[in-house]
Amino acid sequence: GAVVSQHPSWVICKSGTSVKIECRSLDFQATTMFWYRQFPKQSLMLMATSNEGSKATYEQGVEKDKFLINHASLTLSTLTVTSAHPEDSSFYICSAREGRGLTQETQYFGPGTRLLVL
Amino acid sequence: DQQVKQNSPSLSVQEGRISILNCDYTNSMFDYFLWYKKYPAEGPTFLISISSIKDKNEDGRFTVFLNKSAKHLSLHIVPSQPGDSAVYFCAASFTQGGSEKLVFGKGTKLTVNP
Fold this sequence. Notes:
heterodimer, A: mainly beta, 7-stranded mixed β-sheet, 4-stranded antiparallel β-sheet, 11 strands, B: mainly beta, 6-stranded mixed β-sheet, 5-stranded antiparallel β-sheet
């Protein structure tokens, strides 16, 4: 099956620094990538949808200036958490969707990145 | 507010028996429902889905039932195997602004005991 990787798998940073998380589709081209966030014992919450070559669409309540998303190619999307604060500590997970087929079923998830802001 | 609810955080069953995972939703606009399986340190993987116009979909040991009037769906695994032990997420799909989006439940951790 299609593989999506994320890097890094975990990161610890100081408050006020920026952290970049990469999401790659390894064996298919992803026209659309999604970024989710999951707090402990909560569900995955969609943060934003990014289409290759265009600006990301953010969900209500998600600050676009804080969570910068770049989808520069059909295999790579990056999420940058700017000026991170302890409340940004969470599990960030991306998914990538192939361009064809039943869209709901062809959304493949990465393994996630755990961010801890001290 | 939770639009997709999985009220049981965990479930334990014996190998060979049936596992039933439940999911309730509140939004009538959902048009597709999916179940994902997640192992530790891995991303969710798609398991089975059902369109809102159907009431049952079966794939091998996995069957999903949809009761639209009750806004309830369930995933049946029979017979259950130890390898089925994982967290199962229920998700619902809808289209907004031309984009399809998934709303997830909190997940149910299934443990199948040998």
